[in-house]
């Protein structure tokens, strides 16, 4: 039976109390206990053997002591082979372990037995496991789910330089925190994340001071796999490592290429990518490497194809076998200037590598590069290699490799290997450059679509933050807006388009424009969201019709209208988090506003809710990235939000900074936008209203009342135009409408005149002919007012007109 069969048939020790035959024999040799496993092995039911002498089942007439006399001593008992008689008559050989019972325990013998084959297999399994762990050349370590070593053998400890001790068990000491080698850490994390990991070859650098190629370099084959209990729960990770002597240079190079494939291009960060290339080249292939890129690459600009004769190079990365890096002439990030006849410029001009197996220092002297010449002579550099960094027909920079401690010159094989590694890195660099270019374009588009600054409004004081995520996640579709409405009201908007990238930013711009347009119609929040929902559906249909257009999945939005006269906030939301309201005298509130479906589903209604706020309350609207950024439950995000909004009497900028500090990590995974507004109220002395009878003679009285109120406010400069506006609007309402008519004047930064009636018919401005008796009212109003319009209410409509006051900000 093999180990595989054993694993299937024996889940534990065959002498375990639950799997072995258990027999209790008293001092007179009588059987006092006989379990089910004993019946299964020998065929005797307990009723047939209990109270019978044990010799009745032995193959000989020997006493139990005699039967064990040939067994070996094991501690206080015995272990060996005993031949017994099966109920069917044949003989069965069992492996038996027995121990005497003391008098206080009833005296006699307690024996456990199992089939000899199972015992032999168990002993073999244990021997194999012990030899594999302690005597084989395989390094083995066990880590828990927190990636802490729980056990390592001496082989792995020696490979990784881990602490050891002379324990009796022959194992190495378990390393403490922070001692996990990077390669082990990476593979173990992959196992815990994905349940498996691909074995990896790692090139191990020879000890310092030894010639690299003339010494026996090493390849280390690593593998990790999960350790699970019988229920499938992951208990930890087992890591194994085997070292192979790299006498074959082909295998050594293959390992280096394999390592480069794993290490270069792990991110879309350009700086990190070139640093990863440097780390692969040093010290495996060079004692020093310098990577210089054209400024256009770092700036993510388009580059001309083919070799490049001119351009500004900039040091992107360099690495040395010495920590002080004495070879570096130019700091990272600074321009790199190579003379026209230098190997680097000749490499860029021709697009071909330059290899100097035996370096001639006059190469730099003739090129006029005395500073590098003196440094080369000082270090004893004896071989030199320059390779262009090219991808997709575009030259992006140059890579320079030097050797002085490694005694071997760069040969043709080295050149081929370096070209392969640099070509791999060049594709990653170009990918990073293209990504940065697209990201910058999307960010510029998004920034242009967001409001450059929020308007100063009499109804609210506002502050905001927009925090785009890191470059790799892509630009998001978050937006916010503050939209002035008629009647001194203001609309507050925050939305989020699903997805990332330039298409999400473009969709965001379309939705923001739609919301602004619909806001000008003075629609209630729930009706406005219904119209935006229709727009998203149309965008999705257009995207489906265009094969090359990504599908617009949808968006979420919250739309709130605040009236400083009534101090009421009317809110509707479409799949968006509920706003938070920080009251001056009560705890922060997350009001229960009907959620509504996300935009783009269609066919489902939206509902709004209205709240009355005291002056000075703070309303916070935000995207879900704010409350989900802490990698904790959303409820924790809401709790932190309420904590950040406490004490709303603080400056709004301070509240914004507190929200960022408490709710957001250093690198949020999603865009975050939030808008906070402190409510203001118009005092009753800034508002005047009257009921107007539906009688043409009431026009004169309404005009006089308006003139008196304007004079009381000290606005004599606009008295005449106010009288004209009131006269025309009231006349239109009496002539064309019905029911109660009301007139209201509002004095804020502008003078607002409103006339309301019960008709749902909206007037239209037209140019009257010279022979017409009427039709000039709205035309005159439009000429003297800064803005005018119509808004519909539950009881009818309101015609409003605003006049800019002298000295008021525009």
In short, what is this structure?
By secondary structure, the protein is of the alpha+beta class.
The radius of gyration computed from the alpha-carbon positions, rounded to a whole number of angstroms, is 42 Å
Proportion of strand residues:
25-35%
Gross morphology is: flat
> How do the strands line up in the largest sheet?
2-1-6-5-4-3
Number of helices: 22
Structural class: alpha+beta
Largest sheet: 6 strands, antiparallel
Mean pLDDT: 81
What helical percentage do the residues reach? Answer: 25-40%
Stretches with pLDDT under 50, minimum 5 residues: 1-10, 165-170, 207-216, 768-775
Separation of termini? Answer: 93 Å
How many β-strands, per DSSP? 31
List the helices and strands and how they pair.
Blueprint: H1 3-9, E1 21-25, E2 31-34, H2 36-42, H3 46-49, H4 64-68, E3 72-74, E4 77-85, E5 91-101, E6 108-115, H5 116-135, E7 139-144, E8 149-152, H6 154-160, H7 182-194, E9 200-204, E10 218-228, E11 234-245, H8 249-263, H9 270-281, E12 288-294, H10 295-298, E13 313-320, E14 335-336, H11 343-350, E15 354-356, H12 362-367, H13 370-379, E16 383-391, E17 394-403, H14 412-449, E18 460-467, E19 476-484, E20 490-500, H15 502-520, H16 525-545, E21 555-563, E22 568-574, E23 580-582, E24 608-612, E25 618-622, H17 624-627, H18 634-645, H19 652-663, E26 672-679, E27 687-692, H20 698-712, H21 719-736, E28 741-747, E29 750-757, H22 777-784, E30 787-793, E31 796-804
Antiparallel strand pairs: 1-2, 1-6, 3-4, 4-5, 5-6, 7-8, 7-11, 9-10, 10-11, 12-13, 12-17, 13-14, 15-16, 16-17, 18-26, 19-20, 20-21, 21-22, 22-24, 23-25, 25-26, 27-28, 28-29, 29-31, 30-31
Helix pairs in contact: 8-14, 9-14, 14-15, 15-16, 18-19, 20-21, 21-22
């Amino acid at each position: 039976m093999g180990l595989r069969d054993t694993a299937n048939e024996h889940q534990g020790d065959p002498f375990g109390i639950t799997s072995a035959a258990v027999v209790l024999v008293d001092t007179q040799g009588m059987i006092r206990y006989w379990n089910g496993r004993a019946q299964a092995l020998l065929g005797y039911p307990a009723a047939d053997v209990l109270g019978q002498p044990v010799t009745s089942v032995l193959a000989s007439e020997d006493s139990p002591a005699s039967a064990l006399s040939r067994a070996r001593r094991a501690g206080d008992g015995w272990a060996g082979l005993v031949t017994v008689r099966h109920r069917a008559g044949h003989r069965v050989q069992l492996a038996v372990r027995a121990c005497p019972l003391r008098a206080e325990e009833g005296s006699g013998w307690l024996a456990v037995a199992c089939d000899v084959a199972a015992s032999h297999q168990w002993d073999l399994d244990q021997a194999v496991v012990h030899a594999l762990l302690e005597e084989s050349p395989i390094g083995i370590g066990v880590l828990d789910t927190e990636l802490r070593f729980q056990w390592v053998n001496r082989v792995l400890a020696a490979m990784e330089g881990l602490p050891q001790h002379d324990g009796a068990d022959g194992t190495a000491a378990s390393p403490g925190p922070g001692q996990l080698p990077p390669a082990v850490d990476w593979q173990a994390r992959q196992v815990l994340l994905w349940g498996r990991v691909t074995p990896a070859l790692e090139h191990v650098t020879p000890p310092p001071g030894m010639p690299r190629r003339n010494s026996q370099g090493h390849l280390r084959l690593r593998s990790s796999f999960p350790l699970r209990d019988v229920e499938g729960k992951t208990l930890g990770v087992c890591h194994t490592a085997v070292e192979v002597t790299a006498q074959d240079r082909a295998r050594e190079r293959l390992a280096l290429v394999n390592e480069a494939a794993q290490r270069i291009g792990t991110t879309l960060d350009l700086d990190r990518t070139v640093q990863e290339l440097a780390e692969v080249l040093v010290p495996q292939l060079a004692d020093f490497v310098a990577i210089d890129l054209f400024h256009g690459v770092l700036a993510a600009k388009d580059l001309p194809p083919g070799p490049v004769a001119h351009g500004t190079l900039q040091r992107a990365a360099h690495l040395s076998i010495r920590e002080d890096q004495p070879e570096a002439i130019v700091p990272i990030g600074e321009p790199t200037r190579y003379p026209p006849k230098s190997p680097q410029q000749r490499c860029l001009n021709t697009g071909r590598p330059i290899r100097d197996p035996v370096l001639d220092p006059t190469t730099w002297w003739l090129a006029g590069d005395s500073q590098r010449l003196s440094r080369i002579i000082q270090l004893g550099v004896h071989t030199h290699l320059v390779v262009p960094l090219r991808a997709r027909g575009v030259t992006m920079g140059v890579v320079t490799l030097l050797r002085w401690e490694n005694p071997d010159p760069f040969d043709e094989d080295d050149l081929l290997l370096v070209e392969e590694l640099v070509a791999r890195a060049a594709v990653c660099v170009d990918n990073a450059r293209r990504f940065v270019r697209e990201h910058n374009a999307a960010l510029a588009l998004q920034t242009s679509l967001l409001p450059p600054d929020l308007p100063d409004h009499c109804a609210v004081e506002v502050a905001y933050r927009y925090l785009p995520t890191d470059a790799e996640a892509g630009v998001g579709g978050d937006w916010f807006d503050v939209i002035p409405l008629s009647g001194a009201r203001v609309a507050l908007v925050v939305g989020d388009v699903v997805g990332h990238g330039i298409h999400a930013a473009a969709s965001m711009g379309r939705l923001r424009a739609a919301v602004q347009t619909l806001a000008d119609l003075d629609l209630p929040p729930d009706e406005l969201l219904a119209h935006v929902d229709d727009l998203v559906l149309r965008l999705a249909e257009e995207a489906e019709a265009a094969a090359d257009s990504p599908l617009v999945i949808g968006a979420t939005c919250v739309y709130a209208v605040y009236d400083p006269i009534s101090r009421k906030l009317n809110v509707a939301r479409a799949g968006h988090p509920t706003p938070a309201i920080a009251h001056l005298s009560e705890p922060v509130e997350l009001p229960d506003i009907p959620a509504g479906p996300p935009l783009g589903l269609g066919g489902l209604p939206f509902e709004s809710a209205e709240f009355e706020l005291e002056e000075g309350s703070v309303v916070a609207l935000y995207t879900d990235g704010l409350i989900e950024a802490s990698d904790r439950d959303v409820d924790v995000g809401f709790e932190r939000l309420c904590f950040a909004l406490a004490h709303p009497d603080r400056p709004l900028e301070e509240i914004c900074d507190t929200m960022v500090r408490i709710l957001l990590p250093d690198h949020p995974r999603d865009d975050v936008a939030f808008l906070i507004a402190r409510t203001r109220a118009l005092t009753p002395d800034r508002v005047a209203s009257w009921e107007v009878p539906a009688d043409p003679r009431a026009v004169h009285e309404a005009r006089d009342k308006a003139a008196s109120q304007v004079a009381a406010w000290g606005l004599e400069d606009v008295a005449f135009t106010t009288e004209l506006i009131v006269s025309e609007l009231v006349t239109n309402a009496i002539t064309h409408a019905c029911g109660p008519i009301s007139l209201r004047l509002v004095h804020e930064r502008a003078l607002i005149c409103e006339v309301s009636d019960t008709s749902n018919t909206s007037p239209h401005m037209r140019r009257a002919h010279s022979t017409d008796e009427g039709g000039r009212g709205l035309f005159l109003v439009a000429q003297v007012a800064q803005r005018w319009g119509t808004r519909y209410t539950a009881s009818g409509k309101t015609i409003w007109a605003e006049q800019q006051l002298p000295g008021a900000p525009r």
